[in-house]
Amino acid sequence: NGNLPPWKGDFHHDLNTQLSYWPGYAANHLDLTAGYTNWLWKVKDENKRWTKQYFETDGLNVPGVTTISGKPMGGWIQYSMSPTTATWLAQHFYWQWQYSMDGKFLKEKCYPYLNEIELFLSSLINKSETGNKLPLSSSPEYHDNNIKAWFKDYTNYDLSLIKSFYEFGTFVSATAYERRLNEWLGQRMLLPDLNINETGLTVAPGQNLDESHRHFSPYMAIHPLGLLNVEDEKEKDIINKSLRWIKKKGTRNWTGYSFSWMGCIYARAQEGDSAASMLKKFATNFCSINSFHLNGDQKGGQYSSFTYRPFTLEGNFAFAQGIHEMLLQSHKGFVEVFPAVPTGWKNVSFKTLRTEGAFLVSAKKEGSVITEVKIKSEAGAVLRIKLPFKTWIVTGVERNKVNLDNGIAEVKAIKGQTIVFRNAFE
């Protein structure tokens, strides 16, 4: 119509581009997720020039709002010029390697990209008078573009991203070269703990989530970063308190993608019914009849105060990832099938979903009972899988080569090997 599209048609990296690639990894479409890392690699030099100009330091950060050529387009400065944008983008380089176990990608793109970010981060953090903290911190869209959107202490958004970056970055560094491993470990150890109180995860020290908020920036540690997991009782309590607090604040300021993302968060909390409920609300209220996500509630404000209709992509893709998170998870160092399936899903199956470690997994659940899990090793890595049955039989590997510890079966898989665990039905 001759007008600019919503948000000038820019690339938003405070969730919009990231959510759009979430489902590609588990869906076994690394050819498509590579489009994201290839593009980020292509505009890296442009991003480095901006980093030097704006932050006056070497290394790599990425503007939160860019053109297709990687140039900054501006916007609310808290996210358009955020110092932690690149740490979130780095997770996609890590995933591209972890889901493929491609050693060439690790050494030629993943490690170099992360190393440039670490050079930037360590320089910026060290500029603070008090040592290991950012000069200023923020949490996307909290207090919008107000002066109150800045915090002198780490927000949980910035801190979660930096902690996660050093966690997987240390692993990448150790696997790729070990050249600067001690420096990475040193920075990681100096980071403070996440800020937590009776509400669970806060926005920042002294700042609770006081109202309904569409961007789950304070809860990055649950999803997508996986710093907190339900296997640990203390972390499970933090997750539960956070989810109860979010629920108390309601959904009036949410948009469509919020429901999809919350479906992923509930799945990580292994609350399958709540995850399915969130995804259903997205699909039935925030999409047009052709399935496009239109941001606002299209059913007259039943769940959100927003009723507008700009078309964006990330809500639909995060919805797909919500389904994946309900069926299969591998972020905790082991594979788990059907971790968050709703109680009403009695008969469920999936085929050739991909996990970290480059495993292709298929599984069946019949009459509410998991009957079979089939795993093919694409790269020949160590398989660790949480067995979903008490008694089992295995084919494709000798049983004495399966080490079982606290319900986790461990096998040194051979490239191309297929292993099948079946329920022995006591």
Q: Would you mind describing this structure in some detail?
A:
This protein has 12 helices and 14 strands. The model has no long low-confidence stretch (mean pLDDT 94). It has helices at 16-26, 30-42, 44-55, 77-80, 85-98, 103-126, 156-176, 181-190, 233-249, 256-268, 272-285, 314-327, and strands spanning 11-12, 65-66, 196-197, 200-201, 328-329, 336-337, 348-355, 359-366, 369-377, 382-386, 392-395, 403-405, 408-412, 418-423. The protein has 426 residues and is an alpha+beta fold. The longest helix is centred in the N-terminal third of the chain and has 24 residues, at 103-126. The protein has a 5-stranded antiparallel β-sheet, with no helix packed on it. Strands 10-13-12 form a 3-stranded antiparallel β-sheet, with no helix packed on it. A two-stranded antiparallel ribbon has the order 1-2.
